[in-house]
Amino acid sequence: MTNSMISVVLLLCGYVRTEPARFDNHKVLQITPHSSEELEQVLAIHDLYDLDMWRHPRMGNHSLDVYVEPEKLKSVLTALKNLGSHVKIWIDDLQKLIDQEKSSMKRSIRFPYTSQGRSQGFNHFTYHRYSTINQYLRDIETATASMPSVNASVFTMGYTYEGREVNVLKVTRGDGESRPSIFIDGGIHAREWIAPATVLYFINQMVYWDDYAPQLLNKFDWYFAPLLNPDGYEYSHTTYRLWRKNRADHSRNCYGTDLNRNFGFRWNPSVGGSTNECSDVYSGSQAFSEKESQSLRTFILSNKQNMIAYLTYHSYGQMWLYPWGYTSAFPQDWRELEAAAKAGTSALAQLYGSNYIVGSSTNVLYSAAGGSDDWAKGSAGVKYSYTIELRDTGKHGFVLPVDEIEPNCRESWRGLAEFALSLNTNMRRKKIGDRYKSRL
Ligand SMILES: *[C@@H]1O[C@H](CO)[C@@H](O)[C@H](O)[C@H]1NC(C)=O
Ligand SMILES: *[C@@H]1O[C@H](CO)[C@@H](O)[C@H](O)[C@H]1NC(C)=O
Ligand SMILES: [Zn+2]
Q: Which one of 92, 123, 181, 342 has the minimum C-beta count within 10 Å?
C-alpha cells in the first residue's frame, strides 16, 4: 500500500467513527401498580415490549422505573392505561440529561489532570475515562512509594474481551503486617458511572490519610478495583450512554454479557437473567464465561484467606443489599450482615439525610442469580458481602449529574468507614512476612 492509500484509509476510518447514539424524547416512566396482581401484569407488559427496567419494584413499594424508546411509547402507555396503573413521565427527554452531563463534565475540567505524579490535583468530581483511571492508579502507586504510612500497589487481575486491563489497587499501612482485608469494586455495569467515581474517591481518602483513613488502615488491608468492566464503560462514553453489559461479541449482531449474572454460585439464567444473547441481562453461555468475571474470580480466590468483606458498588436506588440474590432464603448469619450494613447507612445519612434501604437482595428487590456478591459469599467464603446501589432514587437514574458526585462520594465514604469500623475482626491474624506470593 502506498502512503497516500494509507492516508485515505485512515481518513475513511476517521469518518466511519460513529457518533454517539441519541436519546431524543426517550422517556423513563414511573409506574405505580395498585396491587401485586397488577404488578404482575405490568411486568408482563415490560417483557412483551422488551423494555429496560431501570429501577425494580421492591417489597412493600411496587413502583418501578421503566425506560421506553419513542417507537414503543404509544403502545406501552395504552397498555398501562388499560390496566389502570398510575403512570408518571419521570424523565421526559433523556437526551437533555445526557447533554447536561456532557457540558458539566467539560466545565469540571477545572483541575486538569496531569500525569506528573500530582494525584492530588486529580479532579474526583467528574466522570473519567479508562486510561485516566488507570493512570491515576499508577500515579497513586508512585506517590505512596515516598509516603511513610501508606503503601499502594497496582495489580492487573486480568484482561477484558477487548484486551483492556482490569486493575486493582492494594492499599496497606506498608508496615509489613498483614491484616484482614476488604475488597471493593465498581463499574461491573457500564452505565453506572457514579460507581467508579466513588471507588476512586475512596482511594484518594485512604491514601491521602483523610479523617477515617488511619483507623481503617490500622484495621484492614484494602483492595480497590474501580473499573471491572472497562470495555462496556468506554462504550458507554463513546457510543451508547446506556450500555450495561460487557462487549463480548456473540456474532449474531448481539453484544455483551451481563457480568452480574455471570458469576458461578447457583448460576441460573432463568432467575433474573436470560439465555438470549441480545438481552440486557444475558447471563452468558455458562457461569464464568466472561474474561472480566474470571479475572475477579481468580484474584479473589488467590487472596481470600484473610478477606472479611466484599463490597460491589452499583447505581441506582440507594440500597445496601446482602445475599442472597438467587433465593429469598437468608444466609444464616444475616443478622450480622444487616447490623453492619446499618452501621454504614445510618452514618451515611447523617451527612445529607440520604436514606438507604438495607436488606437481602431478593427480599428488597427481586431474585437474580449469578451476582458477584452471592459468589463472594457462597463460593469464596467472604462473610460480609454486599451490593451497594448508590444515588439517586430515580430523578436522574444512571445519568447522575456531575454536581452530585461530591456529596455522593462524601456520604459513601462515611458509610464505608463506619461499616468497616463496626466489623468484628476476630479472625485468625496472619504473621508478618506472609505477603503477596504472586503478581497476577
Ligand atoms: C415508592 O417508591 C418511590 C420511588 O422511590 C417513591 O417516590 C414513593 O414515594 C414510594 N411510595 C411509598 C408509598 O413509599
Ligand atoms: C508495598 O506493597 C507491595 C505489594 O503488597 C509489596 O510488594 C511491597 O513490598 C510493599 N512496600 C512496602 C514499603 O511495604
Ligand atoms: Zn448495576
A: 92
